[in-house]
Amino acid sequence: MYANFVICLRAVLPVFMMILIGMGVKKIGWLTTEEVKKFNKFTFNMFFPPMMFRNVWESDMSKGMSWGFVFFCVFTIVATALISSLVFRRIEKDPRTVAVMVQASFRSNFVLMGLPIVTNLFGQARMGEIAAVLVVVVPVFNVAAVVVLETFRGGTIDIRSILKGVLTNPIIDGTIAGFLFVALHIPLHPMLRGVINDMADVASPLALIILGASISFQSVRAEKRQLVITVLTRLLIVPAVWTAIAVPLGIRGIHFATLTVMLCGPAAVSSFTMAQAMDCDGELAGNTVVFTSALSVGTIVLWLFFYKNLGMF
């Protein structure tokens, strides 16, 4: 039991240490808010495509993809969005606040925090087994978020804009490029491979530091009840429900660990940006990101430890 706890702690703790470094960098004034935004965009567009490409290129693809698992991941996202919409509309009057609560219930920081944790648990060589999850889940997160926020604020949904955002997403582009190179057996020159590896190595550490630098504490006096409900839903209720359903379905190993991290991870940082941009409750969205990020260091370890002891992965 102790060994399992150490394994889970070693997988999660380095991720949060990087976030703490980012918070420290912002605190001492090495980065301004505007610089953080620029670095975030730069990191996402420059380093994430090589990282996603490598995840596929260097993985053992002989084991193939479990498309049933991919479908289940998508189902959990869509079902959570629908159910939480029905529930939160009954307990909260302001539709712009409801939109933020619903978005937080299904949209976790899976790429920035979940992927490094799964890599720490299983190693780089097995990341190809969950590459298809990223290709599908990332656009589903984004599309569902736009639909929820637009619906509750009374806006219209721009299908063309959504499709453009999906097709130009660096995470998706890098993953698809990796699949193409593997499927077509395109060789990589050692020098080019070295450049890709160097850029990929930068992606997660830099992104986590920038994530930490982007976190800022705001007043929570006005919306304590809504914040507590949203945080509990994101970190405890959603993972408890769906992992309990996944167990009898026979989901195990790296798939179960990936599902767990996706479900119990903190709210996505971009959910705050989108809430502000789409005239929803930006303050609640920001506080949700902060508190779920801070508390998830404990809850993620506990969820992984619990299921590791049960032999789920």
UniProtKB/TrEMBL annotation:
Pfam families: Mem_trans. The chain crosses the membrane at residues 7-25, 67-88, 130-149, 170-190, 202-220, 227-247, 253-272, 284-306. GO terms for biological process: transmembrane transport. It is found in: Cell membrane. It comes from the Bacteria. One of its GO terms (cellular component) is plasma membrane. Keywords: Cell membrane, Membrane, Transmembrane, Transmembrane helix, Transport. Its main location: membrane. It is a multi-pass membrane protein. PANTHER family: AUXIN EFFLUX CARRIER FAMILY PROTEIN. Belongs to the auxin efflux carrier (TC 2.A.69) family. This is AEC family transporter. It comes from Eubacterium pyruvativorans.
